[in-house]
Write a structure and sequence with these properties.
The complex is a heterodimer.
Chain A (H helix, E strand, L loop, with lengths): L2 E3 L9 H11 L2 E2 L5 E7 L4 E7 L3 E6 L2 E6 L34 H5 L5 E3 L1
Antiparallel strand pairs in A: 1-7, 3-4, 4-5, 5-6
Chain B lengths: L8 E5 L4 E5 L3 H7 L3 H11 L10 E5 L13 E6 L6 E6 L3 H6 L5 E5 L6 E6 L2 E6 L8 H12 L5 E4 L2 H4 L8 E2 L10 H7 L2 E7 L3 E2 L4 H16 L9 H7 L6 H4 L3 E5 L9 E5 L16 E4 L2 H9 L4 H14 L3 H11 L4 H6 L26 H15 L3 H6 L5 H12 L5 H12 L1
Parallel strand pairs in B: 1-6, 7-11
Antiparallel strand pairs in B: 1-2, 3-4, 3-6, 4-5, 7-8, 9-10, 9-11, 13-14, 14-15
Classes of the chains: A alpha+beta, B alpha+beta.
Chain lengths: 117, 433
């Protein structure tokens, strides 16, 4: 069981990020979310979603999902996002296991871009 | 103000470079609720009959902006419109309202005129007035790139003017990042008159909630109701136009459509990115530096289409408008009268274009959300609710699932304060007076 993301359905509204932030902080904030739409390529309209799981960092890109195992060396030729948030320092997705209504990112995604695998 | 707020109002005097701060008084919130009602109150408070700066510009957010209430994206900019002469309100769309909400300031009053070009940098509860010598003269795209590169953060929201604003054109627009904004009221001229090139905003704060579980549960019910409505699943600027009673632009824009993009936490994407210099079906990141343009305003599209332009040419015109910092709706209206259809020829007319233009409307609210609407009917009241509470004004016209009473309940759960429908009606009556 885990989160599945269809980046092509994402409209970059950030509801998932805010819902996840609430789960972490019991307040509205965006700095501790483990699911984040990336918005840093604005002029190119290149938008996807990054999810931090226990052992991996999932990049749901429009062209497909890329899973990077945490701790493994990344491709040095890939351009880093200048505004990439320190995802690796954040807590991993726990599927909102302390909440009745399941993962809040799924509950608040308006386009059903996020679902349970 | 303890909840859903940073409890801070900044008063910036560009003439003296003094910056002072006030708390956001709970009595003011009980009396005015928030958003445009408080920006108008601050405008009246800081307007000076003696000043020669065309009055203050006040930025703020709605009471619910930045929360999980669907559509809670709105920031608001209040000033005296050079186009209509009225003290008016322009929404801050995309992520600008949210970033302002989390910036550490609830409201920002900008008064006076700087003696040389400056910009404001708003972040982490800090507001700086910085020299803009190296930004003045740059178009909005170059200025945004320059600033983000200097700060090392591509998520900074940039409210900027281009050449039109610097030359204090009546049609100058305050753009948001690279795109056209809802500023149809000439606020870009006010930036120019103040020697204010741009306002850069980044929000990394936190909003406490009075009753978090109940608040979020209610928000979840609202979004579930919205999701169950098939009409809410239609995305993009063409679908929004059709939903509001304008003609469907889908067939015209379809071949160029890359993806639809939403403003912060807005369930319907009212913006559409078209690729004019790239294959619209491309999924990978484009290698082109500027593959296209984000369409954010319905009215100029309709006008340019009716003037006989192709969707690609309309996109090129609006991109040029955004870079120059001129209102695309005004350009489209004047272009229709001129009979020009070539984007390059249209762009050459920018320096000489003058109002008045009908596209500025005659409401105190930007006509950005007036597409297909009878503004003498319920439109202004509905807009007032959106501008006070912080909801996306275009989406809110379509959102039948969310009532005033539900919004006031959420405001109460979020703030530990009680807001009645009578209070809301009084506040609306006050700002519409």
């Amino acid at each position: 069981m885990g989160i599945q993301i269809d980046a092509l359905k994402c409209i970059a509204c950030m509801a998932c990020e805010l819902a996840c932030g609430y789960h972490r902080d019991d307040a509205f904030a965006l700095l501790s979310s483990c699911i984040v739409p990336y918005r840093g390529r604005e002029k190119k309209n290149y938008v996807g979603v990054i999810l931090k799981e226990e052992d991996s960092l999932v990049a749901a890109r429009p062209e497909g999902v890329e899973i990077n195992r945490i701790g493994e060396e990344q491709d040095p030729e890939k351009e880093a996002d200048a505004s990439a948030k320190p995802m690796l320092l954040r807590e991993s997705c726990d599927l909102c296991d302390d909440m009745e209504n399941g993962p809040l990112c799924i509950a608040f995604c308006p386009t059903n871009a996020i679902s349970m695998a | 103000m303890e909840y859903l707020a940073s409890d801070k109002i900044a008063i910036v005097d560009l003439a003296t470079r003094d910056i002072s701060e006030d708390e956001l008084d709970e009595d003011l919130v009980l009396d005015k609720i928030g958003g445009a009602a408080i920006t108008r109150h601050l405008y009246d408070t800081y307007e000076s009959a003696q000043s020669n700066d065309n009055g203050p510009i006040v930025l703020g957010t709605g009471l619910l902006t930045g929360t999980l209430v669907p559509g809670a994206s709105l920031g608001v900019m209040t000033a005296k419109s050079p186009s209509t002469g009225k003290i008016s309100h322009v929404p801050l769309n995309l992520d600008a309202g949210m970033e302002l909400k989390y910036s550490g300031f609830d409201y920002i009053v900008i008064k006076g005129k700087a003696d040389k070009p400056v910009y404001l940098w708003v972040h982490d509860g800090i507001l700086d007035i910085n020299d803009a010598d190296d930004l003045w003269g740059k178009d909005t795209w170059t200025a945004t790139d320059h600033l983000r590169s200097e700060m090392g953060d591509d998520l900074i929201q940039v409210l900027s003017i281009g050449e039109a604003g610097e030359k204090v054109s009546d049609l100058a627009q305050v753009g948001i990042n690279y795109w056209q904004s809802p500023d149809r009221l000439g606020f870009g001229k006010l930036f120019g008159l103040k020697n204010l090139k741009l306002i850069a905003i980044r929000g990394m704060g936190l909003l406490e909630i009075s009753e978090p579980e109940a608040f979020v549960e209610d928000c979840a019910e609202v979004i579930a109701a919205i999701r169950s409505n098939p009409a809410s699943q239609k995305q993009g600027i063409a679908a929004a136009a059709a939903a509001l009673g304008e003609e469907d632009l889908g067939d015209w824009l379809g071949p160029l459509t890359h993806r639809h993009m939403a403003c912060f936490n807005t369930p319907v994407a009212t913006n559409t990115f078209i690729f004019t210099d790239e294959d619209p079906t491309l999924l990978k990141e484009s290698t082109a530096a500027e593959p296209g343009f984000l369409l954010t305003d319905i009215a100029p599209l309709v006008s340019l289409k009716n003037a006989g332009l192709s969707a690609k040419d309309a996109g090129m015109v609006l991109k040029a408008c955004a870079k120059y910092g001129i209102d695309g709706a005004a350009v489209a209206e004047l272009t229709a009268k001129s009979g020009l259809t070539d984007p390059g020829e249209i762009e050459k007319t920018f320096p000489d274009l003058k109002g008045p233009v009908e596209s500025a409307g005659n409401s105190i609210f930007s006509p950005w959300a007036a597409i297909g609407q009878d503004i003498n009917g319920n439109w202004e009241r509905r807009q007032a609710v959106a501008y006070i509470l912080g909801l996306h004004p275009v989406w809110f016209q379509m959102a039948t699932e969310i009532s005033d009473e539900k919004l006031l309940d959420l405001a109460g759960l979020g703030t530990e304060m009680e807001f009645t429908l009578d209070t809301l009606n009084e506040v609306i009556e006050d700002i519409l007076a």
